[in-house]
Amino acid sequence: MIPHSEDAIQLAVLHVGLSICKKGPWFDETCKSGERKMEFMLT
Question: Which domain of life is it from (predicted)?
Fold first, then answer.
């Protein structure tokens, strides 16, 4: 469960950033580390 707080906002921003990353030519280390951070926040 995701709490309604700054964490939820951060997670939403990360999620949007990652979907933009995957659509463009910028799927690099930045996106991969963002993905790991998102997975960490969800667990």
Answer: Eukaryota
